Amino acid sequence: MRNLLLVLALAALGGCMSVSDMGTVAHDQLSDAGVLDHSETKRSTNFRLQPDSFMFIAQGAFVPPGGSYPRPNVVAEEAFNGFIQYFPMVRRARAPEGLDDAMNEAREAGAHYLLYTRFANADDRIGTTDEWQDQEAVDRLGVDHAVIQVMVIETSTRYLIDTATIRLRGGFLTLYDKKPQDLLGPPLTDYARRLLGVER
Hints:
With 200 residues, the chain is α/β, with parallel strands linked by helices. The chain has two domains: 1-33, no CATH class; 37-196, Rossmann fold (3-Layer(aba) Sandwich), CATH 3.40.50.10610. The protein has six helices and six strands; from the N terminus they run ααββαβαβαββα. Strands 1-6-5-4-2-3 form a six-stranded mixed beta sheet, sandwiched between helices. The radius of gyration is 21 Å and the shape is globular. The mean pLDDT is 80.
């Protein structure tokens, strides 16, 4: 009997999660339930890049529909902040530009890949009393939404390596005084990890 209890105790301890794993699971569950910020990334391929790849990041000059006017280069800025953690060689365009201009600039810099992004949609909902006083529309209350589109293009061949659509949604605990562009950082960092095949 004592041996059986010892085996059961060891089996139970072996199945326990670490504190960091429990925190990750709790965060994911709260995100899925809409309490915290949530993102969903759909990629066209599972292609992986080498860790020493030189990435050039640019954003198209596209103003997203949805009544929100984010900073002109905010997607490229947030992507740069995420990618610099995983790729040792990263450069970013200083301002939004067309795909051909971004490709030329990436080639001149000697980059292996162009990460071309655009803010496809941004819905800035009412999240503060000031915004309520400006709009006073009950149907505008709620969490912010956004959609980001990303392309990874090989500069030497102009071959499209990967495309991704990232859908973002704010959470009820994080909706106060937030804008759609405030949701960009974590999913773009996660996309950099996915390109490398790195776990969290």
